[in-house]
Queue: 4 jobs
Job 1
Amino acid sequence: MKKPYLNIVRYLCKEMLFGFCVVSIILLSLAPTGCDSDTGAYNISPRDAAIAKADAWEKKRYEHILTQKEIPVYSYRIINEFNHDESSFTEGLTMEDGLLYESAGLWDQSRLVAIDIGTGRIERRHDLESLYFAEGITVLGDEIFQLTYQSCIGFVYQKDNFQLKRIFHFRHQGWGITDDETQLIMSNGSAALIFVDPETMEANRSVIVADQTGPVWNLNELEYIDGEVYANIWKTTLIARISPDAGVVTGWIDMSGINPDPAILKDPFVLNGIAYDEETGHIFITGKCWPKVYEIELVPPE
């Protein structure tokens, strides 16, 4: 007669134990872990909190650029727009003799093209081997210099037929490249501009680019315009105007609003690409995989 009661007791104990375990698991899942005392955020590791703090500082730094008064901030006016190949992950852009030269990146699809900007027709094209990620380009004399991202190799082509003439090596990542008609000027994603002899490919000197706050990092695509180096600042809508002698930022260009589709064209499809038309004094701007190239003129601050 005792067995039924024992079974009932065992059943109740089992159910109570199960309920206790469920409640314990729920409470443990709600318990704060990895709380960062500086941010007050829950479920954030100290490492992630440190990165978030650095990102917030960087965002604040770039916001400060647009409000400070010591260095002029230019805006822009769109003069014209042209179709752009949306598969072109733009890493280099320059204009020469009425043609727009573009270096498109990404592995297994990097290329160099010469485009008739008016018609959109590709006049010349050279595809890189799949192991190379193409970066910046510049035209110096009758040659085109093209960087690669992480291979520490660059290529020199004959301008009129894209025939490969030679290769060169460098000791850092390749990002942007331009020239002042006598020497090459390179960037590597840091705050440095590196000046290189185009014959020997030896670095002659370097400067650290800085404004009144400090070094300006993430220098990307470059263009030499009227004695200054213009540089895209990676992942921002800013272009820096830089004195090549000392690396001083002489002006900022705020390209806010140029992105044709911000909801879709976000990192990595960021603003990148500056070309200069000496005849008109206008600048051509695009981004990675953007559908348009924009011809603009700068508007000085009031």
Job 2
Amino acid sequence: MKVILIQFLCHFALIVCLNANDSDSMKILGVGNSFTRNATKFLPQMISSDPKINAEVGVAYIGGCDLEKHVTLANAHEQDESKGNQYQYTLDGRTKMTGASLKAILTAKNWDYITIQQVSSKSYKPESFHPYADDLITYIKKYQPDAKIVIHETWAHSPASPRVKIWNLSPGDMYQKLHRNYTDLAQKYDSKIIPVGTAFHQAKTTPEWSFEATPVDVRELNARLSWPEDKDNLPVNRKTLHNDVYWKKKSDSEERAVFADGYHANYRGEYLGVLVWIESFFGTPATGVTYRPESISAAQAESLKKVAREAIEIYRSKSRKHKAEPAVAAPSE
């Protein structure tokens, strides 16, 4: 009997300990699309590299999902639980659910912060934000009433993106429009902002990351190059933060072809995004971050840290005039 009692007490103590550890960690959920994944790509590694940070980061995403679709899927699931199950859910970079509903992910943990964003292709259009952002926030609050809503400011496309010509919209003009839309949304809900879009914009004004776009002829590249023989022969631009040109499987076969993008982040842009996230949520100055992926040189990392730090400071300066604040935590000294 004494042995059983001891075993029970040990088991109970372990549960209490685990729950205490769980409650001590900051829990962040990003609701969005591939841009959410881009901006959090290196976040688990960066958190692990800092013993002062205790956090879990989840991402609920659907590729190309805009605010309206999030709401449509949520409402469909409320009416019929067999519908709306299109989300991928990762926690600290590991896949936890596939084909999940937003409700299932929202209720998976007691989230402290939940981020939302508009899809890149609509981020510069003010009419695309409402009423969908309002409805999404209402839905989130239904299942996580104590969570704080944080606005993830996405970024403009690359100067080399086909969208520049197709939309007749320069990256600078796109940034100004999306920046205004995200700021307005944050002010409406007195929410804080993760200024990743501002960081991308600032980077493009520096000698390290500014460049004159060279038109890329995808047809010519596909006629001249073949996979895998030419997998390393794509045009290289070491100043871009975007995935301008890349190899991708064709939709109807296993063959690969060259595609033009120019809006998703490449590994340099992903590192910049994570630097902004880490300072916004944990107060760790981006310039003090020690983690650096092997794919990024020490010089590039230092440059991107300075850009991230500047973007945070720009937002802090503006937040003194407006209620939309840039960071969850103030920088630690």
Job 3
Amino acid sequence: MFLYIPLRAISLAVEHLVYTERVGGSIPSLPTMIPLKMFKNVNWRFEIYEALASTSDLCRSRAEAGEPDGLVILAKEQYAARGSRGRGWTTGKGNLSFSFLMHFVDDEWLQALPFLISVALYEALQGFLPGPQKAEKCFQLKWPNDLLLDGRKLAGILVETGYSGPKRWAVVGIGVNLQEAPVIEGRELACFAEKAPPPTSEICAHAIIESLQRWLQVWQKEGVRVVHQTWLSYAHPVGTRLAVKGRDTYMTGMFGGLDEQGRLLLTLESGEVVPVVTGDVLL
């Protein structure tokens, strides 16, 4: 059972943003209609809460109950949030925490998804920078799912998968430090406000989803190669010295790019190239 305080629900239809408010368990429509650029493939539906244990947990429960594609759940506060590999995560006041649901039929789509999201996240946040700062490339993607600002973590992505009957689903959780960098022992974190006035969490989430929709269409038309190429242009350069820490392993070498499945290629001192499926990259 999830404890939450519903603030309002936003239904993002194909051509308009429809605001509704939860009152006593019912959700009567309000007449406010805001024109938006059309989303062709997914009916994105935003629900915004004042507080939740975890946006991904609620999104996951809805997925298991048969919720269709496009559900987006955003919370202004999370009190049981988690990051990759079960780590805890602190939302922080004014920061963004949201999760969304998509279904998929094959592993090719799932392999592409983290890179689609990373590129979409990078470009959405880049869009909120003032003109002169856009050329500075202060953001950098780090394999597999982090966005850095001046070498410190600004945002993270967590992808979880499961089944609802015959359907396979992915719940994607995204956290962005907009207003403040949480204090977490042993971690160096950054926030968007260090570079520019940050957007609100709702506006930022909408921009990320809009950017993702564009990249989904690029992937469908041009394949994963262009997605990987764009990701590489935003990431730590090929040849960067790094270490990869696994649960029971620690390897050092140079970043050699990505293979067709999106695995990190690590060139060891011996010249051997090792494909890495999972692990923490230390730059």
Job 4
Amino acid sequence: MAETQSAGPDGAEPQQGLDALVRRADEDRWLTARFAPEPARAGLAAVYAFNLEIARIAEHASEPMLGEIRLQWWREALDEISQGGPARGHELALALDEAASRCARTELCAALTCLIDARARDLDGEPFADLEALGAYAEASAGGVMRAAAVTCGAELSDPDAERFLRACARAWGLTALMRAFAPLAADGRAPVPRTLKTKYDLPDALLAQRGGRSGVTAALGEIGAAAQSAYDDASRQSVDVALWPALGYVALVPGYLKQMAKPDRDPYADAGERLLLARQWRLLISSLSGRI
């Protein structure tokens, strides 16, 4: 849900610009990518920059149709990359084409297209019906990023256990990310609270936009956090293949974020559950060494 801007400062090499963008706007994924082999890191930067770009479209589109036009542009760009044709003259498209040349081209583009399809839901503006619908969205959107990253790293996902593991990781991370982004999303009229929880805790959109109903918001986010914890628990029971870990190892940070956001005195409109960089680095190191999320 992070905001982004046009990638690549003047005078910088394209990949250096994308890497700097991801480091600034999506630090947890950037940190985890440091554990990937050097040849895969540029591809991961392109994948994560693409995720930021797709999120930015939904966040800044003045009308749904304008956002859909931009998403369609990227669908067509990915289709061209998938077929091995010349990439469009856009820094990110060129970087994705380069990443695709180093891995399974069609699989990478398919995963990124699924990400677009999942994030197209952001243009809708309608609240999710219930917690399961919110979880499915979190799984699809975060899962698209993870699948693309896994392909970039050369990880194998054909095994049913690996697929179940990835889906649990995606749901855990996606829900946690939505909770952390609650304040800016609520201010924009897109609070990630399902309709059933809005009704249960008396949280009309107008109240959320005015930063009201803190006790109800805390209770609703608590239920979302419980769903995220449940998905994390499912993922944590399985060991992670060494090739797959750099694509989703940041999921190891979920319990820490959930603990921060569960503090009784936390203001959901002011505290995104941030954790110190050193604590996150240490947790990622332990996870990578243990082979478990």
